[in-house]
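Hi all, posting the design record for the shared folder.

TITLE: backbone redesign
STEP: 1 of 1
STRUCTURE INPUT:
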């Protein structure tokens, strides 16, 4: 896989990114594709939830956690997750058209190495397949673990031209009840779940106490989770490795972007030559 990745954005978003030295991550429900968070949205309908419960009954997962609890944890944790889209494509006609912003769009470039230096995020290439509830459930729920990242790893084949490379923030503990997490000892939800299982096996707690404890492990309780979350890259020199503008951008716009880049010591590549004719 190429170490270079790209993001297409508006001039306003580009200026905000440079001035803040931060990336703006959003919650999945801000994206237009109704299939984002496919399993999470499915379990919010009566039919979808019934199909998921039926899958749990057939799957024989090695877990003492009832399906309703597992779904509740996934739903509540997913609300604290924020994402951002990049692409492995240098440029395509489709990408410039989708992110045209009236010809005033900008493409920025960075590297995987730079992303690895950003705190509290992970990243992965999106997989393009026909949507399958069973496949996604298998990838999300493995044994006693819940792989939240997998709930956002798939898109329909119609979007494959994007070659999306997705950034995802870590679970945001700002929205978790303080009394249920020990920040000093760095106890994780998996640690607490294993402890509850040991207590249950030893007879130190009842089944009712176990189920109550599982239902309340680090579940987000604050209702006003921000849809946009900014994550800093200020500690990474030359995070933006190059800037290019839309192939049909006006000359005055290209000059404005060039001047802005020069002031912030960012390499400016000029207009894309995607639509420039050259017989040689």
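Okay, here is what came back for every position:
SEQUENCE:
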């Amino acid at each position: 896989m190429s170490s270079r990745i790209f993001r297409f954005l508006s001039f306003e978003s580009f200026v905000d990114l440079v001035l803040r030295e931060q990336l703006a991550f959003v919650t999945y429900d801000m994206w237009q594709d109704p299939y984002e968070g496919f399993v999470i949205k499915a379990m919010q309908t009566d039919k979808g939830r019934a199909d998921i419960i039926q899958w749990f009954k057939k799957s024989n997962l090695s877990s003492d956690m009832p399906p309703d609890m597992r779904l509740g944890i996934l739903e509540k944790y997913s609300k604290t997750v924020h994402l951002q889209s990049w692409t492995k494509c240098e440029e395509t006609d489709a990408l410039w058209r989708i992110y045209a912003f009236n010809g005033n769009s900008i493409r920025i470039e960075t590297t995987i190495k730079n992303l690895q230096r950003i705190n509290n995020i992970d990243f992965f290439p999106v997989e393009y397949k026909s949507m399958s509830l069973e496949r996604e459930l298998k990838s999300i729920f493995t044994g006693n673990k819940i792989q939240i990242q997998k709930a956002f790893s798939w898109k329909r084949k119609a979007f494959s031209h994007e070659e999306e490379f997705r950034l995802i923030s870590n679970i945001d503990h700002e929205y978790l009840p303080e009394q249920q997490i020990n920040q000093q000892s760095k106890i994780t939800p998996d640690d607490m779940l294993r402890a509850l299982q040991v207590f249950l096996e030893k007879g130190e707690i009842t089944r009712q106490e176990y189920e109550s404890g599982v239902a309340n492990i680090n579940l987000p309780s604050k209702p006003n989770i921000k849809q946009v979350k900014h994550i800093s890259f200020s500690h990474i020199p030359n995070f933006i490795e190059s800037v290019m503008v839309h192939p049909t951008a006006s000359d005055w716009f290209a000059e404005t972007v060039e001047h802005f880049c020069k002031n912030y010591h960012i390499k400016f590549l000029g207009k894309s030559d995607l639509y420039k004719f050259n017989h040689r």
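COMMENT: The chain has a mean pLDDT of 86.
Let me know if anyone wants the other runs.
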